[in-house]
Design goal:
By secondary structure, the protein is mostly helical. It is about 50% helix and about 10% strand. The protein contains five helices and three strands, in the order ααβααββα. The radius of gyration is 19 Å and the shape is globular.
Length: about 130
């Protein structure tokens, strides 16, 4: 038995998602959730948006309390693999590794900040 999917109700007339397939958007939401909801991910991204300078691994270790070195290393690799961070390694002794946001990462962080501002705005109006 085939069921017809109903379009999502529109809250505003000029919705920027008009014409998108709801199932496709839900799939993309799932991908996004896998990236940003892992422990430590937002804690890595937010400090990077506050500077144009690369951030050293050691700086992350100092600022991220409660996140193990192993978890930090895994998250940094995942974010690099996703194209959100760029890893810069220098042939020095001791080794120096720095991270900076890619354009993709910068857009993600800006979106997260917009979401945080939305949350702050609406949490005041309870």
């Amino acid at each position: 038995m085939e069921t017809k999917s109903k379009p999502l109700p529109m809250v505003k007339e000029n919705c920027s998602f008009e014409g998108y397939d709801a199932l496709s958007l839900m799939s993309e939401t799932s991908k996004l959730r896998k990236i940003i909801t892992k422990r430590g991910t937002l804690e890595i991204l937010i400090p990077l948006c506050c500077t144009t300078n690369p951030v050293r691994y050691k700086q992350f270790r100092k600022s991220l309390k409660g996140i193990s070195s192993k978890t930090l290393a895994i998250r940094l690799k995942e974010l690099e693999k996703s194209g959100i961070l760029e890893r810069l390694s220098y042939n020095e002794i001791p080794p120096r590794v720095e991270y900076k946001l890619t354009n993709k990462g910068q857009e993600l962080v800006e979106s997260v900040i917009d979401l945080l501002q939305w949350m702050k705005k609406w949490s005041r109006s309870r």
